[in-house]
Amino acid sequence: MSAEPQSPAHVLLVVPAWNEAGGVGRVVAEARSLPELPDVLVIDDGSLDATAAVAAAAGARVVRMPFNCGIGAAVQTGLRFGLERGHAVIARFDGDGQHDPHALAALLAPLSAGTADFVLGSRYLTGDGFQSGAARRVGIRWFSALLRLACGLHVTDPTSGCWAANRRAAEVLAIEYASDYPEVDSIVHLAKRGCRIAEVPVAMRERESGRSSIAGLGALYYMIKVTLALLVGQLRGRAIQGGS
Amino acid sequence: MEIQLFRSVAAVSSLLLTGLVLELIRRRKLKDELWLPWLLVAIAPLIASLWIRPWAALAHWLGIIYEPALLLGLATLLGFAMLLYLTVVVSTLMRQNLRLAQDLALLRMRVESTGPQVTRSA
Question: Which residues pair with B14 in a beta bridge?
């Protein structure tokens, strides 16, 4: 990986959005006013509301998926776009306003310094900003423990969904990225492909619109699916090693 | 007597299923990679019911007292194998479908950003 500082013009901010007309405009406006001057790409994942129109009016480029493909496929589309257009860094923020675009500078710092390939924003490193509920924190600790076991990584907020990747990490994720609940799984993929992963503190906000899919039975499915995906990922990792 | 009846039912069912599969192949309703496993599954009970002695010997060797149970067990296994195979096919299709959706979305963006280019001839 190059240790040269990244040019701000080469940063692509990917914002996946599904029925987020209420919040995506502010996210885009905030992102476009950042000193890093990122290209802002909203992936409208088959929204039934005016998400695409609101994002475009706020100044974002908009890719409209032909139907709802899942957040992973939406983010992967953004990764492919960024790689095709030659962006040096691809960052990902939610379209519901939960991720403060001002965290971009903190995410870019380890990439610019050449000390990491993938930088994850964590709301728990300093405890600033909106903190999730107790049940969700238990789930996050469970995934942190699994990640430590699976790849020896100490990650405090593996499900934050707020990250930045250089081209090396983006290329890994553009090939393999789960279409639903991809956050934890993708960290394992990156670690197994030798990417360096770092965490920086970020402050999060309460979502401005929409509702989380990780609630009620969805949370249970999330826990089971991600846990099993990690176990299967371990088997695949062994198969790759055995095959090579 | 009961086994004879079972053999007859298995043979007739197998013939009907084979006929149905062949008709679907003839109408091109079943794609190349998918008709072969179905044809094998359809013909297998017919062969088993006609060639009963080896099956009966195998059933005894496995400790199965009621020989047709072996046929039922194998049919169940074949059914599961087919479901597994079809799940693999569906998984492949889902992956390809997502890739195509991504390509379509990126191409549509590219086309829309260049503006209308098509002129209608008189």
Answer: none
Distance from CA of B26 to the nearest CA of A (A): 34
The residue among A103, A120, A88, A116 whose CA lies nearest residue A8 is A88
**A135-142 contacts, C-beta under 8 A, 24 or more apart:** A135/A219, A136/A214, A136/A219, A139/A219, A139/A222, A139/A223, A142/A223, A142/A227
> Measured between CB atoms, does B105 come within 8 Å of chain A?
yes
Q: Which domain holds residue A186?
A: 8-243
Between A50 and B114, the higher pLDDT residue: A50
The total number of structural domains in chain A stands at: 1
Q: Is residue A1 part of a domain?
A: no
CATH number for the domain that contains residue A70:
3.90.550.10
In this structure, is residue A223 part of a structural domain? yes
Domain boundaries, chain B: 2-112
| pLDDT in 10s for each residue of chain B, 122 residues | 566 787 788 889 889 999 998 898 888 888 777 788 888 888 887 887 788 788 888 888 999 888 778 888 888 888 888 899 889 989 999 999 999 999 999 999 999 888 655 554 44
Predicted-complex ipTM score: 0.72
Considering CB atoms only, which of A61, A62, A73 is closest to B102? A73
Cα–Cα distance for residue pair B33/A232, rounded to 1 Å: 27
Kindly state whether A206 is in contact with chain B, defined as any CB-CB distance less than 8 angstroms. no
Tell me which DSSP letter residue B26 carries: H
Q: Is A2 inside a domain boundary? A: no
Prediction pTM value: 0.78
Residues of B in Cβ contact (< 8 Å) with A42: none
